[in-house]
Every structure is written in C-alpha cells, then in structure tokens.
Amino acid sequence: MIYINLNKKVKKTHFFTFTILLLLPFALQAQELNCEVNLNTQQLTNSSFDYIDELKPRLENYINEYKWTEEDFREEERIDCQINIVLNSGSQDFTFAAEAVFQTQRPIYYTNSKTTSILLSDNTWQFSFPEGRSLIHDDLQFDQLTGFIDFFIYMLLGYDFDSFSDQGGDPYFAKAQNILNLAQTTSAVGWSRTANNRRNRYILVSDMTSTNYEPLRTAYYRYHRLGLDQFVSKPEEARTEILEALKAIRDNKRRSTNNYLYDLFFDTKYREISAVFDAAEPQLRLEAYNVLQQTDQGHLSEYERLQN
After folding, report:
1. Which of 8, 108, 200, 237 has a 20 to 30 A CA-CA distance from 141?
2. Sign of dihedral through CA atoms 276, 156, 15, 220?
3. What contacts 102, CB < 8 A, 6 or more positions away?
C-alpha cells in the first residue's frame, strides 16, 4: 500500500515536497546540500602543485556529507549550490591565494523551475592545502580553508531558509557570525572589519544579523514565498507582492548607510525582476520601473523596457 500526501507543507525552514510513505519504519534522510565545486587552476604553473585537483572532490565530500542543520531533508529536498574557485597563486609552503563565488538555488512552487537565491563572492581567501590533507569540520578551532567554506555555507543556508520563512535564517547567520568571531582571534586574512573596504565577510554577516536590515530580510521572504511561489497560480497577486517587497527594500535602503546587502540582492535578481514585470499591465509595469529606478540604478538598462 502506498500513501501519497499531496498537501503543501512549508517547514519553518524549507521547501515542501510530495511525501511517499512505503510503510517503512522510518523515512530515509539525506544531508542538506547538493553542492558542485568548480576549480580553476590555470594560473598555477609550478609542477609541485599537480596534486591540487584533489581539492575539488574533497571539498564536495566535505560539504555534501556533513549535516549542517538539525532539519530532516529528503534526497529530493537537498539544496543545490555551486562554488567556483580560482586559485591565483601558490607558495612553497603550499599556501594558496584564491577567490570564490558561491551560488545557491531554490525551487519555485508548482513549477520545474528554480531561482538563484543569492550570489556571494570573495577575492581575499588564503589557505593551506598540502598534498594528502584531510578536511575536518571543527566548530571550536578555526582553519583558513574549512572555516572559510563553513562561513559561506552557513550564509547560503541563511539566505535559503530566509526565503521560506520570515527571518528563518537566523540560526545559520549566527553560526557564520561565530566563525567570524573565531577567525578574528587568529591572523587569518580577510576577516577584519576593514578587509576589502566595506564589502567583506565582517560587513556581510554583521549586517545580516543587524535589526536594521530585518525589513530587507522580510522583503526577501515576501519576494520568494508570497511572490515567486504563487506566480503560476496567481500571477497578478504574485506581481503585487513582489512590487510591495521591492518598495520595502527601497524604504529600508533609504534609512541605511551601507548598500552592500541591497547590491547583493539586485545583482542576483535584476534579470528575474525584469522578467516578472515584463508581461504585467502597463500601470503596474511603470510603477515597478519607478521603484527600481529609485532603488537599483546599477541595472537601469535592464529595466528600461518596463517603461514601454
């Protein structure tokens, strides 16, 4: 006997799925992440670094096999993410300088489509990776390689959970903050308030955990859960919710002194936002353009067509 539950279930944290119970004593659970690592080593010409290709499978193993949350995930619920790493240089002591781009996606309800939740980048990563090194998760001791990965994985999880529940990412942003605090007790590069001007790890997690940016995070939830997730069934209502979310982001930005989080949102979403309003009624389309003109001038060329 097979029981199929078609009821929509939004966890405090994550996406619903169709549940199939086969009268097993328990349901099989999976880890949270399905992460692909892409490693660019073209700038490393020293033959002593030939082993560096080991880093890709070891990072994928490290990320995908560790349980990052206390939530129960099924295999089909795993969060898709991608990490693109460019190794810029390596030294004789097997210390590498690198830059990385992190991306995560979430499904959109009632569709086969996914939306990119966030794009995060960092170009000041330094870490040690001698040949044969194992990667071990340790919450109490900071490591320049795994600590950097842990920090951004928790940031990705925070954004993902925020998109399903208002402020749902709190536990994961807090974990990222703990990593930053631990890193600052060491001499590791890239963890100070002044690192890389005002677009750095310190500012990223400090702003995401500040009450000053709670309206932005609520708007992020509204954009995804009340907007994108009902777009197929109620497109006009979805557009209205997305427009209200953009207005909230505009109002919150006017009261802020740092544009970093807003730029991250729009750098990730500007093409999607334009596509959402492209087929809207002329009045709504123009209203969206006016809000975007005030809020995201960096992508105005993408929004110009909304005036027509």
Report:
1. 200
2. negative
3. 81, 82, 83, 118, 119, 120, 121, 152, 155, 156
Q: What is the residue whose two structure tokens read 């330094």?
A: 126
Residue 219's φ and ψ, nearest 5 degrees, are: -65, -35
DSSP state at residue 8: -
Phi, psi of 101 (to 5 degrees): -125, 125
Residue 176, phi then psi, degrees to nearest 5: -65, -40
Helix (H) or strand (E) holding 251: helix 235-254
Q: Which residues pair with 176 in a beta bridge?
A: none
Q: Residue 260: phi, psi to the nearest 5?
A: -55, -55
- pLDDT, tens digit (0-9, with 9 covering 90-100), for 222-265: 999 999 999 999 999 999 999 999 999 999 999 998 999 999 99
Q: Helices (H) and strands (E) in the chain — how many of each?
A: 9, 6
What pLDDT sits at residue 29? 61
As given in the structure block, the two tokens for residue 84 are 């693109």
Cβ atoms of residues 188 and 127 within 8 Å: no
258 contacts 198 by C-beta, under 8 angstroms = yes
Report whether 33 contacts 68 (CB < 8 A). yes
The secondary structure of residue 66, as a DSSP letter, is S
Closest to 32 measured CA to CA, from 88, 95, 96, 77: 77
- In angstroms, the CA 141 to CA 270 distance is 39
Strand, helix or coil for residue 21: strand
What would the two tokens of residue 6 be? Answer: 């078609």
Q: How far apart are CA 265 and CA 237, in angstroms?
A: 22
Model-level pTM? 0.90
